[in-house]
Predict the structure.
Amino acid sequence: MNNLAVNNAVRFIGLLFLQVLILNYLNIFGHINPMVYIVWVFLYPVRKTRSLFLILSFLLGISIDFFSDSGGINAFAITFIAYFRLPILMAVLKKSDLDYGQFNLKTLSANKTILFISILTVIHHFIVFSLEYFSFSEFLNIISNTVLTSIFTIMISFLGITLFAKKK
Amino acid sequence: MRQIIYFIKKFRYFLLFIVLEILAFIVIVQDHSYHQSKFVNSANAITGGVYNKVNSVSAFFHLKKDNQLLSEENVRLKNLLEARANKFVLDSFTVIDTSQYFQKYDYSTAKIINNNFTKRNNFLTINKGAKHGLAPDLGVINSKGIIGVIKNVSSNYASVLSILNTNSKINVRLKNSNHFGTLVWDGKDYNITQIIDIPRQAVVKTGDTIITGGKSAIFPEGIAVGVVKDFNYEQNKYQIINIVLFNDMSAIGEVQIVKNLHKNEQIILEQSVVNE
């Protein structure tokens, strides 16, 4: 348990600084900055009590907002996907019940992991860009930004998760 | 009563979710209204400190370019000085009457420690704050043109509303005629901004220089902005005028803060006219 808390604390701070110091300045093709900090939501252990997870996700989002002057956009989006993580995971696995203690994202097959990551990423990015542009007339910009940024976020998150997986 | 407690217990996870989302939404709405100073910004000790540390390393790699910019500006200012000296050199004696001089603008330097230009709403962070005399609504420029307006200050840092932002509306005019317009940004290319509200009598040509108008109480008149790239004249008015900025907004380091010492006077006067 203690080990787990340390693990999560390191991941929280690591992802925060990775995002605000490096990824926010990548500017792939001039304007694409992948938002890999949502890996936090993918990797946080699935537990029966989820309130702490929700609060921590909110805190990570608002910390990103502090650094990037974006109001509460990231906090809103990450809290949203944190809340819907479990239902989406159930839907991907086609199960109605989970063995909470044992579940681990790394034990999933690659296909299901990518599907799970992609759904959450696209939802998150769509919320972020909708709130950033905040107008219907820019709908095409919102969609194109969502799709392009999602591709890079999914690629980097998936590679990161597989590369840093502990071997058993 | 018991049922209420039961209800809260049953849905506490959902309620927590709703509370957090509402909290985030309040911050977003506050952020979108220009006149409210916002709570979530990068001008605080923690984020400012982190950006400052990182910048102290990365600034080292720009030294050469910064030096070049400085010497270019020096040349420009020296030329101005020479032009001035010629005008007065014929006087056999000079009397300096200090009551005829007044200082309207006060300049101070600062350094950008965090620069954004790819988002729809961009903010910059600079390494000077209230301690150094900065306050909201001061102009930020560099040797090539305007950069933005200070929005929030903490004791050591300030966040700047970049001209690449939906909320940025800056009064500009054509250099060769006195027609005013407003500088806005459509969010597409960080080197190209737009001018709206230019009267239809104005004669705009590709390549015309655009400078700040001085109608606002923030920027002095005549600071360079950019040149006209192309424009669209339809239905008897200018639909869109694209401006190429002199500044490369992706690579700005040293900046100057402009403080208008007559700002209060001007605003009070303008308000008293409105109130009548």
Chain A touches chain B through 36 residues (CB under 8 Å). Chain A has seven helices and no strands.
